[in-house]
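Thought: the user asked what Aldehyde dehydrogenase family protein looks like in 3D. I have the sequence; next I should run the structure tool and report back without guessing.
Action: structure_tool
Action Input:
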Amino acid sequence: MTTHTSVPQIGHLIGGQLSVADLRDAYDPGRLNEVVARVAVGTAEDVDRAVHAAHRAFPGWRDTPVAERVQKLLAAAELLAGSSEELAPLLVREHGGVLWEAQTDFALGAGALQHMVSLAEEFLRPVQFDDEQSFVSVEKVPRGVAAAIVPWNMPVVLTMMKLAPALVTGNTLVLKPSPFAPAALTLVLHKIAATLPPGVLNVVHGEGDVGAALCGHPLVRKVAFTGGTATGQKVVEATVPTLKNVTLELGGNDPAIVLDDADFDAALDRMLKGVYTRTGQICFAVKRVYVPRGRYQQFADAMCDRVNSYAVGHGLDPEASFGPLNNEAQFKKVLNLLDRTRNSSATLVELGRKLDPSSWDNGYYMLPHVVRDIEHTAPLSCEEQFGPVVPLIAYDNEEQVIAWANDSDYGLGSSVWTTDPDRGLAMARRIEAGSTFINTHSFESLDLRMPFGGVKQSGIGREFGAIGLSAYVEEHAIRRLK
Ligand code: NAD
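Observation:
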């Protein structure tokens, strides 16, 4: 029986007005009979209204002094941090994470917003030259209406990584959340939008057709997308007729390379946070682990021992190490990879325990798996699993492991594990990736001073820092002859 007890209604926000037409139920992935929210499903007409609202608000926001934009957005960061207590439990119930993961999403989001906004005044200062022949001023101007499209896994921080640079540089924004985690994000965005002029921040809900309409809209001058690689390709296609700037943060298949001198206990303490946090559903999660053949059994045994202590259950259960997968398609994708692995020479080890066995089938629950003795070429080693399942691959020498790490269409994160800092740095420099971490590889590895993004089919462009701001401005060069 489906339960509906007084759930929030999540509408579009267009030009400062809420509209709640055509609501659909959103379910808890850990209690499939529970409706968490009723969420609007938009159309291309809603997108058009939102883009026009953003377009009308643009001149006023562009001409607002940057110091005032900074103040408003710093206040928004406080509002965001202060909303975590109220909204993180709702986020847990819609995206399936455990409570501290949802709280971390809010905290990282507030930190990212504050950090990027505080860089803006210096970044936006014009670069000028004045000599006997001429005066030159190179000015950074906003592009206009920006569109942001985000996934469900860490919706708050992934939104703030786009909202902050877009709005502080003077653009207006239309955001499309994922239908798999729309509610908590939208409620906090409503609060933030109420502190800004109407139309500066707009939200339209819906599926891929709404995202595509947003990407293709002629008045949208910038698209910032985070999601899967196949969807990123569709985003680019939709923007071709109106040629707009696009930033893509896409999938990954991050390698973790354990060197023969690594301290396994210390490495596993940190590495496992990068494997199973958010049920493995993080773009730069550790998705394949390479271990030197001579120490393989020792590493695999130590890893299995630790993972066996995990307990899986609903995200609001304080005992849960991690929660269910987010949606049926994702659940089936991981099950399919497991099935394909079962029919190979690899050994699939299922570990951990079920917190509430009687409710296990009422959610997309999966125990943690470690896959031993698997080949580098196996589907589970080559494809992004996005689940609590990790392949452990034995390698023979450094040349081989570097070749295998780079033998991927992806190139998002990566890591090297060693007690020798120079060796770690030398190996890191040989990996094709947007980021390489040494002796760390999880959400704890992020440093706001590091640009974030991927190479190859993991994306185009970078978020954070001055390079993140630069994706939202055009350089306008002015020269006066004397
Ligand atoms: P997804 O690509 O299915 O969806 C992402 C967003 O795109 C959603 O809002 C969706 O509704 C929208 N969308 C779907 N079709 C569209 C279209 N044709 N045009 C425009 N928008 C469209 O991804 P997901 O399942 O929500 O998220 C998981 C994927 O996201 C994984 O591959 C993961 O690695 C990736 N991801 C990447 C990063 C990063 O920073 N690189 C961060 C988080 C997640």
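Thought: the tool returned a structure. Summarizing for the user.
Final Answer: Structure for Aldehyde dehydrogenase family protein predicted. Residues 147 and 432 are 29 Å apart (CA to CA). The chain has two domains: 2-250+459-481, 254-447.
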